[in-house]
Amino acid sequence: MKSVLMLNGYEVKVNRHKSAALSEASNFAKDRLKLASVGLEQRDNKMEYEFRRNSLTGTYLATFSMDHEVLGQWFSEELGPVLAKVQQVLDVIKDIQADKLTSWRLVGNDFTLELEREQARVFANTLGFEQEYELEEDMSLYDAESEAYCGLEDFEQALLSWYEFVQKGS
Predict the structure, then answer these.
(1) pLDDT higher than 50, residue 26
(2) Is-contact 25 33, C-beta < 8 A?
(3) What is the pTM assigned to this prediction?
């Protein structure tokens, strides 16, 4: 479902799209995938997103549903309204789907994007740092809002929607 409306000076585009469950482990960070995928294989994980443009300042904002929040930050902060960046990622997705590439990584200022044949992963660059202290048994750091996985096709659809939204707003 897609719709566009004006809300408090923002042009808002809402898209609700079904996200594929993770099917195989990522070559990048299998240990984190074990934590992130708990329960995902057994439930239908819907990825919802909303795009907004402030008509006064011209800034763009992407907001994604729970378990995918970091995607919104990546869209807003790393891509922004630069259509050439969006097109670059779309081209890489096509190369991965055509088996010209097996994986690809884009390291940004605050977030990193990793693409593979079946999935996309976005994570905060701070997750790459090893912890300097030992946690108590059965304890872990909360990083759910710093890392997200989704199916490659779902990610491609979100990118296409972002491209279309930014293009119409420019």
Answers:
(1) no
(2) yes
(3) 0.67
